[in-house]
């Protein structure tokens, strides 16, 4: 019995993310906090939180680690 691990295909969701959602995801993947992301984007931290909740819903991910992995896979 052999075990093969594969990375999920995540290229398609990039088209479903709005440009500001992609930007927020890029900041989080770079290690910024919600507050730092908000300041960089000129938004409130509540708006950034809303963007990231929508990203989690759209992509079916639950943790920040999964968001970072997805951002890297999408080339953000």
Distinctive features:
76 residues; 0% strand; single chain; mainly alpha
Please describe what this structure looks like:
The protein is mainly alpha-helical. Helix content is 63%, strand content 0%. It has five helices and no strands. The radius of gyration is 13 Å and the shape is elongated. The N and C termini lie far apart (37 Å).
Percent range of helical residues:
55-70%
Distance between the termini: 37 Å
> What is the gyration radius calculated from CA atoms?
13 Å
The average pLDDT score comes to 84
Strand segment tally:
0
Structural class category: mainly alpha
Total helices: the number is: 5
Order of helices and strands: HHHHH
- Outline type: elongated
Strand percentage lies at under 5%
What composes the largest sheet?
none
Poorly predicted residue ranges? none
Secondary-structure blueprint:
Blueprint: H1 13-16, H2 19-29, H3 34-41, H4 45-59, H5 64-73
Brief summary:
63% of the residues lie in helices and 0% in strands. By secondary structure, the chain is mainly α.
């Amino acid at each position: 019995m052999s075990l093969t691990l594969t990375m999920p295909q995540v290229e398609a969701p990039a088209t479903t993310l709005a440009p500001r959602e992609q930007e927020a995801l890029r900041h989080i993947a770079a290690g910024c906090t919600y507050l730092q992301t908000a300041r960089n984007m000129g938004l409130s931290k509540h708006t950034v939180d809303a963007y990231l909740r929508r990203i989690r819903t759209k992509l079916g991910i639950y943790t920040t680690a999964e968001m970072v992995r997805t951002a890297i896979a999408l080339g953000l």
